[in-house]
Please model this.
Amino acid sequence: MATPDFIRTLRSSAGNQLLWLPGVTALVFDDEGRVLLNRRSDNGKWSLIGGIPEPGEQPAACAVREVFEETAVRCVAERVVLVQALDQVLYDNGDVCQYMDTTFHCRAVGGEARVNDDESLDVGWFSLDALPDLSEFGLFRIKQALSETPTWFDPTV
Model:
């Protein structure tokens, strides 16, 4: 995920200390029930589409924007799948972030899936019975998006 300009500005005064940031994940499904994934350029792994909202940007609008920027697919955010505070991330440059992820179930409405920026090596639609190797993060979100359960949140609180 590319670092937004507003975070670079924050880092100029905050240094590497922990930043608590919003994040969004988009689970985009087409009419055939396939899910849209990208193979990330930073680690080469298949992943769900995601990003960081700009200041003042609504989370659902961010999800739609990120999907288009990374894959050229147009989508509509239909519902919130889950909200979850993620573990802290330590980046190679020493920056520390922690994200509050809001995951959206989205429906594709147009565009041809393709690599549309430098954050992806590959982009594709995958049937649920032929997913590439995905992290537990991605698999859990797909499972929750397909369940009849209302929005998931950590029930231990």
Remarks:
- Residues 59-71 form the longest helix (13 residues).
- Strands lie at 19-29, 35-40, 46-47, 49-51, 74-85, 89-90, 96-110, 120-126.
